[in-house]
Design a protein that fits this description.
This protein has 316 residues and is α/β, with parallel strands linked by helices. The chain contains 15 helices and twelve strands. β5 (116-120), α7 (125-128) and β6 (133-135) form a beta-alpha-beta unit. Bound molecules: 1,3-dihydroxyacetonephosphate and iron/sulfur cluster.
Length: 316
């Protein structure tokens, strides 16, 4: 691919350059399923939040280019501090992490000293450092089951995921009022319209969606779980209520299925995460070339954030 970009020489073949730099740097490219298809295609590993954290804990690479968002890159650095962790655009945040600042969270949990603090991985290192255990969408019920049954739980930051987990686990939890900018705006009316238009279609939803969407879902799960569910059926039709990046893998793995990205309330194509999509091939190339932007963390904070992550990883 030849590009025109002020920061990169115009005649550069980005794919070749990235491959060469990966070898030179002993680097791995990890990508989340919400990345642009061209980024997914160059990744050494693709995964959901849990899988990306597990790979970071096991790799003997020197450098990781995390094609995802800041909390994922921070998680990799917390778990494996010897790694150089690069996030090609430091503005790739997350509305959930940004809606739960560490100082406000510290005040919140101080009011409930007897509660176990279970936080979703979509948080800053500062919030992780205040937590007892971390979960992702693929292991949350198991993580919650690890909290003694008589201990009350405070869950943050996603209120929709929290509500879904209360139903799943039967545990009453105090919820932080956070939402994901992508999953919060799928339209129930549009889902019903699509179900009427495609009566055979199954609805797949991420648990960050509102209750009104989840109630119509035939399968609820993490990105990996949604992809597995859809691609294990041939000739199926699926209404996909999560970031549309997952459809790229679905089409590669089961091209004969029909995948219909769920529309949002205002009819726009807002089912692309504005944070995830900040990562581009050009930025990946520049990150590998310049070894920046690099994630750095205060060591005391890192060690505090490591404990709840290790508890999660120990659960498998
Ligand atoms: P997964 O862990 O299911 O990949 O979710 C990550 C995420 O950011 C969902 O919006
Ligand atoms: Fe955060 Fe939502 Fe983007 Fe996932 S899709 S990174 S939860 S803003």
């Amino acid at each position: 691919m030849y590009i025109e970009n002020q920061a990169v020489a115009p005649a550069i073949d980005l794919y070749e350059e990235i491959e060469a730099l990966k070898i030179e740097r002993n680097a791995l490219i990890l990508a989340h399923y919400y990345q642009d298809p061209d980024i997914q295609d160059i990744a050494d590993y693709l995964g959901d939040s849990l899988k990306l954290a597990q790979i970071a804990s096991q790799t003997d690479a020197d450098v990781i280019v995390l094609c995802g968002v800041l909390f994922m890159a921070e998680t990799a650095k917390i778990i494996n501090p010897g790694l150089t962790v690069l996030l090609p655009d430091l503005d790739a945040g997350c509305s959930l992490a940004e809606g739960c600042p560490a100082d406000a969270f510290a005040e919140h949990i101080a009011r409930y000293p007897d509660h176990a603090v279970v936080t979703y991985i979509n948080t800053s290192a500062g919030v992780k450092a205040l937590s007892d255990i971390i979960c992702t969408s693929s292991n949350a019920p198991r993580v919650i089951a690890s909290v003694p049954p008589d201990q009350p739980i405070l869950f943050a930051p996603d209120k929709h995921l929290g509500r879904y987990l209360i139903r799943q686990t039967g545990r009453d939890m105090l919820l932080w009022e956070g939402t994901c900018v992508v999953h919060d705006i799928f339209s129930e009316q549009e889902i019903l319209r699509l179900k009427a238009e495609y009566p055979e279609a199954l609805v797949l939803a991420h648990p960050e969606c509102q209750e009104a969407i989840l109630r119509h879902a035939d399968h609820i799960g993490s990105t990996t779980s949604i992809i597995k569910f859809a691609t294990s059926r041939n000739g199926g039709q699926f209404i996909v209520a999560t970031e549309e990046g997952v459809v790229h893998q679905m089409k590669k793995m089961a091209p004969d299925n029909l995948y219909i990205p769920a529309p949002t309330d205002d009819g726009c194509a807002c089912n692309q995460c504005p944070y995830m999509r900040k990562i581009t091939l050009e930025k990946v190339y520049l990150a590998l070339r310049d070894l920046q932007p690099e994630i750095t963390l205060d060591e005391e904070l890192r060690l505090k954030a490591l404990r709840p992550l290790e508890r999660m990883l120990a659960l498998g």
